[in-house]
Write a structure and sequence with these properties.
ABC_transporter-like_CS; Rossmann fold; single chain; about 260 residues; 9 helices; four-stranded antiparallel sheet; transport; alpha/beta; nucleotide-binding; ABC transporter ATP-binding protein; about 30% helix
Length: about 260
């Protein structure tokens, strides 16, 4: 069963002295089990994106290991990683006039030879992926004409067409209205694929994640279930904000109400 293990990662933006300690990682370790939805939370500039980039083979760690099923991803080819890890980022790719189905079809690239065309199986996977994100019928639309939320769902469909063993999401709900935030995270949860996601909205993280890791100043400072991690003390210490934590009356997960100062 697929599992991601990050062991004692260290990374810093070399040559960017003006960054001080921002974005660097120090002795960061975490684990994502098979089928587990793990959230990464922390303030802006705490190192969330830097950690994810090390995990999906974009930024090479200065120390430590990134293991997928006991294989060090930094000792494998980029193709090997692309066949197993799918990534959904905050930024949208330049689609250069591509249609929606062509963007989703890019998810099949790691599994094909250089000159291979789309097979019937590929087309079925593309259709299934679009259906999963509620965009069946959008195949012929130009990607560039879509709303931010629609683009984000197309990028998730591309990741699903990739048939990954591990899904990495960097702030996947940033461009979505509340309905599609809930739908997208609910879809990811139902996929039963090992998932590591940085999530800005702590109430969404509480509602959908099996476990959470808290990162602050490049270090993992807490981990556990949402109930274990999301305490008023931790939110005060890490985010510098007072909060009331209670239990959602319908679903039973922690609910955070931020306390604003008059």
């Amino acid at each position: 069963m697929t599992a991601l293990n990050l062991h004692h990662l260290a990374w810093s933006p070399l040559g960017h002295g003006h960054c001080h300690h921002q974005f660097q990682l120090r002795d960061a370790s975490l684990r994502v089990g098979a089928g587990e939805f793990v959230g990464l939370i922390g303030p802006n500039g705490s190192g969330k994106t830097s950690l994810l980039r090390c995990a999906y083979r974009f930024s090479k760690p200065a120390a430590g290991e990134v293991l997928l099923d006991h294989q060090n991803v930094w000792k494998q080819s980029s193709r090997w990683c692309a066949q197993r890890i799918a990534v959904v980022l905050q930024e949208f790719p330049d689609a250069f006039g591509l249609r929606v189905d062509e963007v989703v079809a890019m998810g099949r690239t790691p599994h094909k030879g250089l000159f291979d065309g789309d097979t019937r199986h590929d087309r079925q996977l593309i259709e299934q992926a679009l259906e999963s994100v509620g965009l069946l019928g959008f195949e012929d639309h130009a990607f560039a004409t879509l709303s931010g939320g629609e683009k984000q769902r197309v990028i998730l469909a591309r990741a699903l067409a990739q048939q990954p063993q591990l899904l990495i999401l960097d702030e996947p709900t940033n461009h979505l209205d509340p309905r599609y935030q809930l739908e997208l995270l609910g879809l990811v949860k139902r996929l039963n694929i090992g998932t590591l996601a940085s999530i800005h909205d702590l109430n969404l993280a509480a509602a959908f994640c099996d476990r959470l890791y808290v990162i602050n100043h490049g270090q993992i400072v807490a981990s556990g279930t949402p109930h274990e991690v999301l305490t008023a003390e931790l939110l005060r210490e890490v985010f510098g904000v007072e909060a009331l934590i209670d239990t959602h009356p319908l679903s039973g997960y922690p609910r955070i109400t931020w306390i604003t100062q008059p």
